[in-house]
Design brief:
By secondary structure, this protein is an alpha+beta fold. Helix content is about 35%, strand content about 15%. The chain is built from nine helices and 21 strands. Helix 7 (about 195-305) packs antiparallel against helix 8 and helix 7 (about 195-305) runs antiparallel to helix 9 (about 340-370).
Length: about 550
Amino acid sequence: MSAASCLLNEDQFLCSICLDVFTDPVSTPCGHNFCKNGITEHWNRNAPCRCPNCKEVFCSRPELKVNTFISEMAAQFRQSAQQEARSSCSSNNSSSSSEQQASKQGEVLCDGCTGTKLKALKSCLVCLESYCENHLEPHLTRPGLKRHQLINPVENLEGRMCMKHDKPLELFCRTDQMCVCMLCTYSDHKTHDVVPLKEEYEGKKAKLGKTEAEVQQMIQKRRQKIQEIRRSVELSNKGADREIADGVQVFTSLKKAVERSQAELIDTIKVKQKETEKQAEGFIKDLEQEISELEKRSIEVEQLSQSEDHLNLLLNVLSLNTDLPTKDWTDISIRPPSYDGTVVRALNQLEKKLTEQMKKLIEAELKRVQQFAVDLTLDPNTAHPELILSDDGKQVHCGNVKKNLPYNPERFKTCVCVLSKQIFSSGRFYYEVQVDRKTDWDLGVARESINRKGTITVAPQNGYWTIWLRNNNEYTACTDPQVRLSLKSRPQKVGVFVDYDECLVSFYDVDAAALIYSFTGCSFTDKLYPYFSPDLNHGGKNSAPLIISPVIL
């Protein structure tokens, strides 16, 4: 030890409360010295205030001031002890270097090493230095240094000191959410909620553990979502492949049907053409035969007319008077065959085949959309006062009397219609409604925000995607402008399919397996309700109900 340190005894600078070298030493009225933090906490826990050494009781808590003399002596002792530890470690540095590997880049270096810096094993929050195995030994063996707080090696130990008071940051101010030293609690943070670092550490660590669990749960959910999206993409790819295969099959079949119809049309025309040619060839052959006979007779007549033998001429004239084997060609002619209607009949046959193929496609499509069937019930809170709903909420028709019902903002006031209780904001859904025996009706979907009190015009720009029947035979898609629909059969049951995400609303004649109409490119910016209107009673002519039917798969 140095000469200065030999004159100082460690026990003279140990606080009897914390058993460590004095930090901010204060003196009590009885003359005993303690660390300010230690005696303050002691008196906070124990009443009345008394000296821990001589047990003298103080009527009021003494005002404690730092004893500058003892503080300086303690600082001198601490400095000399650190210098002794460094010199001791320096002499053993060469022998210990073979036992320890030099520190690697990024590791905390030992502050006690003077030559090659070795890896630090611990950092001291009191000395504000980091030590390797050899330099750490005094902190493990000497009583005063053993009480220092050691932590795993860290850089920038000065950052763990209060910049204002140059004291360790050993407290946490919950009010300002910052680390503070003991002296901060007597100044800027005097009235704040201050707790030991360990207490806040344990609380924060518990919260971090909870946060970590929540983060892991969020990660797991997102991984599950990735799997879900990948499954959706896989299903989409399979669906696309299936649709492409079906489409190729259908169009290949249609192509073959068109080619077959074309070939049949050409064959039909060629057969007629060949028959005409054959008839003409027969006529020409007969005519050429007669021409040959007539030419022979012409030669005979010419020769006989030049004869001067009276007897010979008279005898041969008789033989020339016999009839030639000819026929009357006056009314005989070749009329070109008529091809009128040949192409039309071929197209009709092709249309028939296309219709059959289309029906098969619609049947398959209808089966697919029926997989999204939902169970609907009518909402009486939205029904117009003239409407009568069944007890199970599956049927609605218009009565002849307008009921006196309490005001309800959801109820239709002027339009005899009703919405379902169910509401949809995504995905796909399908339902079927019996419309037989009715002369007028409306079906479709409507936005949640539609006007329910004033004059209503059902059109997409007003939040309605519907079709209707009027006057028992006029079917219309309620677009703007409206589209009159030409149906081959009168629907008895109408299916309504909605794909919210694809902005599609389609209507089907369920029994005929036919597509009635589709709204595409719809603007769905709100939740959707299935919409029903049995229309007015019309003196009993339209008294039949609309009936929500169970979907039979």
